[in-house]
Write a structure and sequence with these properties.
Length: about 425
């Protein structure tokens, strides 16, 4: 971070993630986020304390969410003098929130900040088409019975058909999964390789649970104490039986429910601070957030929609004078197994590294033993805005507990963007 002060990652708290329409069917973005933030406040004895800024967001929003970050900070029991800023860059939301707060801490603008995110696919807003919406506005403005009746002139029942929530890119009309299927085809990623990566994610996550790695990271919510998507008992044989989820007709589809992230509900939060602020309260410093980078690509012009992390990571490492050889832990968000595999392949490809990343030599290979050692989004699930904070919290704990020196994080986002961060172990 540019600035004179180190940015401490004190720790994190999240609620267990749940597959859509399961444990959190009656929860909302606000209730989940408040529970995660409340857990963070309890964990670090911060109830009633003023935090200099809570920055959080959700990708799927209700208008009733208002300033979600501020409302959740209040519900969680922080001092009413704690400001909240709601922001959103799709799946990169909470990692970008952390980088924004880190910049402010590094320069001395603030001393403490919480980065967080929350998303619910079970509580998506039900939206009606323009015609019915305008009728409702006319109705609310009508002053006489005649005007009220007039608002329904020419009404047809078809207008009540809700506009379904979607993960479609506005510029292409294709869903995230359809875009990733195109990427898999371009990079020659097989179904077998995708299933193997997904299986490893589940096994690594299940092992992390067995080791008790998650014990102090999770705050129970609505009776759920554990992520309910982690499948210790899945197998390549079972995965091989699953039908393509996004390319159902060509006979060549490779993305399935097993090698894609499930639609997920959840919330996660991370506490960042200056070292002085943390030490004055007797709080731990697990690691430092040292660098970040956000990048975008020309996906509408033909580049892979979820490939921008290749650029963000390349630019971040160049600015830090680091290479893959300097990194001990790689935490790459798994939107889809194919998206991770395309990214890994691109970093080894001379043409891509030269033409897209502007490098004379390739970025290189990543040791599979250093990648997503505790599992990632394919296993835990992916409540869009919460994922960055989940990964950052997990990474800081991993560096502290396994005595590794340096970690690299990347998250791809809708809209052809990528966010990357570097985390260093605290002495
Ligand atoms: C920037 C980014 O991050 S982009 C990524 C954004 N995320 C997305 O776009 C979400 C992508 N995912 C989806 O849209 C959906 O999860 C889909 C379309 C892939 C699958 O949807 P659904 O068919 O509803 O999947 P569902 O989760 O119900 O799974 C289907 C079945 O497969 C089973 N299954 C899924 N994974 C596994 C597995 N690893 N092993 C065994 N069974 C599995 C489920 O249990 C379910 O079985 P059931 O019907 O007996 O309950």
């Amino acid at each position: 971070m540019n600035g004179t002060r180190k940015v401490a990652i004190v720790g994190s708290a999240r609620i267990p993630f749940a597959r859509g329409n399961t444990a959190y069917a009656d929860e909302s973005n606000l209730s989940m986020l408040s529970t995660a933030l409340g857990g963070l406040a309890d964990k670090f004895n911060l109830k009633g304390e003023k935090i200099d800024e809570v920055m959080a967001g959700a990708v799927i929003n209700h208008s009733r969410d208002f300033n979600l970050a501020r409302e959740a900070a209040l519900d969680a029991g922080f001092s009413p003098r704690t400001p909240g800023t709601t922001m959103q860059i799709a799946c990169g939301t909470s990692l970008q929130a952390a980088l924004t707060l880190a910049g402010k801490i590094a320069t001395g603008e603030i001393d403490s900040g919480i980065a967080a995110g929350s998303d619910s696919v079970s509580d998506s807003p039900v939206v009606f088409g323009d015609k019915f919406q305008h009728r409702m506005i006319d109705l609310s403005r009508a002053r006489s019975a005649r005007e009220k009746l007039g608002a329904f002139k020419g009404f047809s029942l078809g207008e009540l058909t809700p506009v379904a929530p979607s993960t479609q890119e506005p510029r292409t009309g294709l869903s995230m999964g359809q875009h990733c299927e195109l990427m898999a085809r371009e990079w020659g990623i097989t179904r077998q390789a995708q299933d193997e990566l997904a299986l490893k994610s589940h096994h690594n996550a299940a092992r992390a649970y067995d080791e008790g790695f998650h014990d102090d990271l999770l705050v129970p919510c609505a009776g759920l104490v554990k992520d309910n998507n982690v499948r210790a008992d899945t197998s390549l044989e079972k995965m091989a039986t699953m039908k393509p989820a996004f390319d159902k007709s060509s006979g060549h589809g490779t993305l399935t429910a097993a090698n894609s992230t499930p639609l997920t509900d959840g919330a996660a939060s991370v506490l960042l601070a200056s070292e002085e602020w943390a030490r004055a309260r007797g709080l731990p410093v697990l690691a430092y957030l040292t660098m970040g980078r956000v990048a975008a690509n020309d996906f509408a012009g033909g580049e892979g929609l979820l490939m921008a992390p290749t650029i963000a990571v390349s630019e971040m490492l160049a600015r830090s004078n680091l290479t893959f050889a300097d990194i001990d832990v790689f935490e790459l968000h798994e939107a889809f197994a194919a998206q991770v595999l395309c990214t890994l392949k691109a970093w080894k490809d001379p043409k891509y590294c030269k033409e897209v990343l502007g490098r004379e030599t390739v970025m290189g290979e990543i040791d599979p033993e250093k990648l997503n050692r505790k599992g990632s989004s394919l296993a835990y699930g992916h409540p869009f805005a919460a994922t960055g904070a989940r990964i950052l919290g997990l990474t800081a704990k991993l560096l502290a507990s396994e005595e590794k020196q340096r970690a690299l994080i990347s998250v791809c986002t809708a809209g052809g963007m990528g966010v990357a961060a570097l985390v260093e172990r605290a002495e």
